[in-house]
Amino acid sequence: MTPSAPKPFYTINEVAQLADVKPHVLRYWETEFKGLSPEKNPAGQRIYRQRDLDVVLRIRDLLYAEKYTTEGARQRLEEDLARARRAQMPLELNLRESEMATGLVKAKRMVRALLDDLEKDLGDDFEPAAGQPVSAVAAPLPPQPEASTPMAQAEPATVAEEGDLLEGLTAGSLSAQEPPQA
User: What is the pTM of this model?
Assistant: First the structure.
């Protein structure tokens, strides 16, 4: 007997009728074949999905039509399932790799555009690195008075320090005229 229209789930009696076997045979096959594991509803009744029905029909064909033993049918079913998984894997991997490559290309273009904009604004020598003096990266700072302040004798500010200074200026804690206190 074949199903007229696929359903989202089947009861054990429906599957037994479709496979032309008794329900106790289905329960036995569940213990012998890993590929057959229907879920149970809250009442404890087995719920067979279309995949489970396909496995039941394949087991029935292996045992009754092709005359496999239970052990032979188990091995053949595992081989069939493994072959089906291998056939699907390359497609999945290729899609994921393609999506990742597309995303990386887009990100690279965005970064390149940002770097081009920064080079236009800051000049051609824009290549900041951690600990590199700011004077090598940004436009020159306004001249500082030659007073004997600690700032006059200090090392040039680094990129990270300039960021802290700018944050302070925007927060209003420092004015543009006052040098930061060491």
Answer: 0.46
Residues 6+ apart with CB under 8 A from 16: 22, 23, 25, 26
Burial pattern 21-53, b for ≥16 Cβ within 10 A else e, equals beeebbeebbeebebbebeeeeeeebebeeebb
Tens of pLDDT, residues 64-80: 999 999 999 999 999 98
Would you tell me how many other CB atoms lie within 10 Å of the CB of residue 62?
Answer: 21
DSSP state of 144: P
How far is residue 131's CA from residue 167's CA, in Å, rounded to a whole number?
A: 18
CATH number at 24 reads 1.10.1660.10
> How many separate domains does the chain show?
1
> From start to end of the chain, where are the E strands?
39-40, 46-47
Tokens 């899609």 correspond to 95
DSSP result, 53-74:
HHHHHHHHIIIIIS---HHHHH
For 61, the token pair is 């064909």
Residue 63 sits in which domain range? 12-81
Residue whose tokens read 């329960």: 27
